[in-house]
Amino acid sequence: TQGRDTDARNKFGLLPFLVADGAHIYAGTLVVLNAAGYVEPATTALAKIPVGRAREEVDNTLGQDGDESITVEQGEFKYDNSADADAITIAEIGDMCYAVDDETVAKTNGGGTRSPAGFITGVDDDGVWIKTPIQVAASLGLAAANNLSDEKAEFLINDRLSFMRFLGLNLSDRIPDARTIWLFREKLTKAGAVQA
Question: Rounded to an integer, what distance in angstroms lies between the CA atom of residue 177 and that of residue 168?
Answer without folding.
Answer: 15
